[in-house]
Automatic annotation (TrEMBL):
DDE-1 domain ranges (all copies): 8-177
Domain of life from the UniProt record: Eukaryota
PANTHER family, alphabetized: PROTEIN PDC2, TRANSPOSON
Name of this protein: DDE-1 domain-containing protein
Organism name: Adineta ricciae (Rotifer)
Alphabetized InterPro entries for the sequence: CenT-Element_Derived (IPR050863), DDE_SF_endonuclease_dom (IPR004875)
Length: 334
């Protein structure tokens, strides 16, 4: 498997939440194909994320404009007006005419200091996401004979993104806004029970929730080695920090990067489910089918299936004991 800049499969994720942490928008995910594997019979509008695509998997002004106009329509229907604070990036047009959304841009070269989500939410989200990735690798090793048979699909990534974003709590989001310097009497009153924790954020470099998510990822990573490397949670979270997510110079090439609607990859064959009562290993494999069911006709099952899968993997890991294990030790024996 390949990681970071070597990987050919990349996704750009847009996250957006309000100051109080009570409202998190559905993640926007940008891939490199309009209909990747496992998407052939799946309704895009039933996915737990907003799916867009271009050949680089980068954000561009067209995708951003479509997204912000969709948010504006949603706010108009709800009779709400919002202030959206965002990065001063070339793919974020400043001249958009919106009725219910006002855009405010951070000054250049200040994002890392005053962008709230950069103060811990994104790292926390990545830790949750990669915890599910490691669990998936362990799960696939129960039926795989070689590393090449450990398949990670776009549908897998989408489900992990959805669940990782759900795992980020409102308190974590509120704390990051406070850490970035945002203060409001109404917000402080609402979270006065957490003021001791929030006040400490001025002096601490990380959030309690971020530290907790990294500790959990470290525990999972202790069971496996990635390409004979023993990564720490922080190293794994930061592995893609230098990968671009938009064109740094301009957005002129957007038209050449557009994917045609007939860009459809061939779907992979589904595996046959055994009729006899499943073993733990077989139950782990069945969760993939349940994810497909959730995306095709039962979207309300997304959270239930993800939690079931996570619990089954925890049980499987516990059955292996506490001894550190190489990734190849999880492969099915023949």
């Amino acid at each position: 498997m390949q990681w970071g800049k070597q990987s050919k499969e990349r996704y750009t994720v847009l996250l957006c939440a309000n100051w109080s942490g009570t409202h998190k928008l559905k993640p926007l995910v940008i891939g490199n194909s309009r209909r990747p594997r496992y998407f052939k019979n799946i309704g895009i509008n039933k996915l737990p994320v907003i799916w867009k695509a271009n050949r680089t998997s980068w954000m561009n002004s067209t995708i951003f404009t479509d997204w912000i106009q969709m948010i504006n329509i949603q706010m108009r229907r709800e009779n709400r007006k919002i202030l959206l604070v965002l990065d001063n990036a070339p793919v974020h047009p400043a001249d958009l005419k919106l009725s219910n959304v006002t855009l405010i841009f951070f000054p250049p070269n200040t994002t890392s200091k005053i962008q709230p989500l950069d103060q811990g939410v994104i790292r926390c989200f990545k830790a949750y996401y990669r915890s599910r990735l490691v669990k998936h690798i362990i799960k696939r090793c129960t039926v795989a004979l070689t590393p090449d048979q450990i398949i990670i699909t776009a549908l897998d990534a989408i489900n992990w993104i959805d669940q990782a974003w759900a795992d980020v709590t409102g308190l974590t989001i509120r704390n990051t806004f406070c850490k970035a310097g945002f203060q409001h009497r109404q917000t402080v009153t609402m979270i006065n029970n957490d003021m001791d924790e929030i006040n400490e954020l001025t002096f601490n470099s990380s959030l309690p929730s971020e530290e907790d998510s990294l500790k959990k990822l470290d525990i999972l990573l202790s069971y496996v080695k990635m390409d004979e490397l023993q990564l720490t949670a922080m190293e794994f979270v930061k592995i893609d920090e230098d990968i671009p997510v938009f064109n740094e110079v301009d957005d002129i090439t957007v038209h050449s990067l557009t994917i045609e609607m007939n860009d459809i990859q061939q779907d992979q064959d589904d595996e046959i489910i055994q009729e006899e009562p499943p073993s733990l290993t077989e139950a782990l494999e069945m969760t993939r089918k349940l994810h497909l069911l959730a995306c095709t006709s039962q979207p309300e099952l997304h959270e239930v299936v993800a939690n079931l899968e996570s619990k089954l993997i925890d049980i499987y890991i516990d059955s292996k004991g506490n001894k550190q294990t190489s990734i190849t030790d999880f492969f099915r024996k023949t």
